[in-house]
Amino acid sequence: MPTQRITTAADAAAILRRGGLVAFPTETVFGLGVDATNPAAVERLFQAKGRPSDNPLIVHVAGVEDWPLAAAALPDSAAKLMAAYSPGPLTVVLPRRAEIAPRVSAGLDTVGLRVPRHPFAQEMLRLAGVPIAAPSANRSGRPSCTTWRSVLEDLDGRIDAVVCRDADGCGIESTVVDCTTEPPTLLRPGAVTLEDLRRIAPGTRPAGDVSPGAVRSPGLAHPHYQPRAKVVLVDAPPTAEELQGREAAYCGIGASDQAIAPSSPLSFVRHYADENEYAAGFYEFLREADRRGSPIIYVQLASENGIGAALRDRQRRAAGVQ
Ligand code: TXA
Ligand code: MG
């Protein structure tokens, strides 16, 4: 199927309403949208991504007040968290509304709900008028996309349309917090940090603190964010001795790319000014290193503070360690 390049929210909304698949920018990463109430369209989306069917999708709506389009109830903790952090990079897991295609929830009785802040996403959702299920717009297992060209690299010919505007914002997928448990459970770290959550919903627990059987996000077990290159996590750029003449790429925090000696065999280097910039650029760096054919990517591990915790989680998964 030829993938249309589109630019307006009206075009995106019209294709979604017809049951089409549209990749659109958000303030985290690109989403691959589909009408969450249309089971056939949802089925096509799983095919296009090659997504395992036990991994549930997040449903997107235009405003906080639209939660009844996707959920059957709004627990108190979710209402408070959304009042504080939505629209924005936050997903709350709620009891599912019956009209949402069961496959969206991967058979669970819950649904992830997010109100994105990106103006394009907001306008598109408002015009669509239906809840939009949207996983990240990449082939399953690959790094997420923050540019529309990267989306096409993975999905050209497999989806109906892509919006030709880049995502701009934190660059890491939303924080996912299960509000059907009391206290809430943090399932995936993001730009809204554990400290941010606890300020509003005291006692929120990271999933690691809950016994394994009690965690209800099966998709977290699958490989994620992995480039073709081997990812090696490091604290500092590798020395010439460590590289032994092997070609490699490196990304991390630093004042400038000049910090690497010209004699180094590192073929592709990027230093980010701080962890916010690092997070915003990380997925595109992995993809660019793949385009350049780097066999190994050395990745400086982020801190455990602020956005660092979310970036660190993605870096560990990109390297295949959980
Ligand atoms: O920032 C984001 O969240 C992006 C943009 C497009 O909104 N979307 C995104 O979707 O990252 P995806 O499909 O790549 O990741 C969805 C995550 C998965 O870890 C999934 O297991 C979890 O959300 N999730 C979705 N619904 C859930 C549910 N009902 N219960 C538990 N976890 C759920
Ligand atoms: Mg994803």
What does this structure look like?
By secondary structure, this protein is α/β, with parallel strands linked by helices. It has helices at 9-17, 39-49, 76-85, 119-128, 148-155, 194-200, 240-243, 275-291, 307-318, and strands at residues 4-6, 22-24, 31-35, 58-60, 90-95, 110-114, 132-133, 161-163, 175-178, 185-188, 205-206, 230-234, 248-253, 266-272, 296-300. The strands form two sheets. The chain has an eleven-stranded mixed sheet with strand order 1-8-2-3-7-4-6-5-9-10-11, sandwiched between helices. A four-stranded parallel sheet has the order 12-15-13-14, covered by helices on one side. Strand 2 (22-24) and strand 3 (31-35) form a beta hairpin. The protein is globular. It binds threonylcarbamoyladenylate and magnesium ion (MG). Threonylcarbamoyladenylate binds next to strand 5, strand 6 and strand 10.
Describe the structure concisely.
This protein has 322 residues and is of the alpha/beta class.
Ends distance: 36 Å
> Describe the biggest sheet?
11 strands, mixed
What would you call the shape? globular
Count every helix, treating DSSP H or I runs of 4 or more residues as helices.
9
Low-pLDDT residue spans:
none
Order of helical and strand elements: EHEEHEHEEHEHEEEHEEHEEHEH
Share of β-strand residues: 15-25%
Helix content: 25-40%
Give the strand line-up of the largest sheet. Answer: 1-8-2-3-7-4-6-5-9-10-11
Radius of gyration: 19 Å
Structure summary, number of beta strands: 15
Q: Which cofactor or ligand species appear?
A: threonylcarbamoyladenylate, magnesium ion
In round numbers, the mean pLDDT is: 93
Structural class: alpha/beta
